Amino acid sequence: MNTYKKKQNEHNAIQSAINICKMYYGLHDSVTNIRYPDEENRDEQEVDCVFQFGSNKYALEHSIIEAYNGQIEYVRKSYDVIKKVNDRIEENLLKDKHYNVLLPPDLIIHKRKPDIKPLVDKLCDEIIRNQSSIMPGESFGIQFNNSDITILCDDYDETIKGMVHRLPTDPIGSGNLLMSDRVGRLLKAKLPKLAQYKRRGYTTILIVEDVSGRYWGGINKNLLPDVSRKAIISSIDIGVRFVSHDDKMIVGSIWKDGAQWHDEAPMENRFKIDGNQAFKLLSHKRKK
Predict the structure, then answer these.
(1) What is the rounded distance in angstroms from the CA atom of residue 214 to the CA atom of residue 96?
(2) pLDDT at residue number 155
(3) 282 exposed, middle or buried (CB, 10 Å; 0-12, 13-18, 19+)?
(4) Alpha-carbon distance 145 to 168, whole Å?
(5) Of 129, 158, 176, 287, which residue has the fewest beta carbons closer than 10 angstroms?
(6) pLDDT tens-digit map of 61-119
(7) CB 270 within 8 A of CB 251
(8) How far is C-alpha 238 from the chain's CA centre?
(9) Sign for the pseudo-dihedral over CA of 233, 239, 244, 247
(10) Tell me: the pLDDT tens digits for 234-253?
(11) What confidence score (pLDDT) does residue 44 get?
(12) How far apart are CA 221 and CA 112, in angstroms?
């Protein structure tokens, strides 16, 4: 038994991808011979995980992808901001409404705790001050450190935890050009590893862990030059996309299934994930 320890998000992504493949492809054999070549051989560029279903061998590579620099930090800290707001004022809010806060990344990225506290204070004060006058479907704006924050009001939904929630926003100037650049970096780092295992008879899997929630197609063909599209076709058998939060995979989809490469995964390719890494199809269709 090896003693190598993956980062928590990487471990969860690998286990989740294995479970998705078992369900989607109807694989009934137990998973065996799980190894982590990148941990065993640090002198070479190795894949993250290899394993077997029956006699079939699989090689898996995992990557986190952002839509802009600092997005992972933004996601983590913005959730923390909203948690602090809820902890402080939730009991003092009218129970017939929810509030969705659009937080600009420049207020979060590279900011220290002393910089974040006044932001939390401002949000608490303004939500309390406006709660009686704002109606569901309406919004109000506030300014903090020369940045505009929009707060949307909607009807209360008892199935949703917390009264205040975050809606992510992008920095000014981010868009497809930045996304394309990050996809290019990912492919340059990951495809050569998978290609070598593909030549050795492995079924290859690329996981894209999407912290932005914007890579709907996993890796969108339209963001790539011809040479990159051809490299993906020849090197990747199965493409899996996860949306994650706090190291946990929330939802997943298969964006490449052999020769099929979807710009947006069809419903039968989509999964939701519970805390035990068990998966259920989001539709009642099952792959034949």
Answers:
(1) 31
(2) 87
(3) middle
(4) 18
(5) 158
(6) 999 887 777 888 898 899 999 999 999 999 999 888 999 999 999 999 999 999 999 99
(7) yes
(8) 17
(9) negative
(10) 999 999 999 887 788 888 99
(11) 81
(12) 38
Query: How do residues 18-64 score in pLDDT, each as one tens digit?
Result: 989 988 898 888 899 999 999 888 778 899 999 999 899 999 999 98
Which helix (H) or strand (E) segment holds residue 174: the answer is none
Helix axes 226-235, 176-199, angle to 10 degrees: 40
Residue 261 CA neighbour count, 13 Å, CB half: 16
User: Top-level CATH class of 8-67+175-281?
Assistant: alpha beta
171: which 2 tokens? 């920095």
Q: What is the largest CA-CA distance in the chain?
A: 66
Two structure tokens written together for 153: 């009001």
- Kindly report, as residue ranges, where domains of CATH 3.40.1350 are found in the chain: 8-67+175-281
Structure tokens at 237: 């058998």
3-state secondary structure of 193: helix
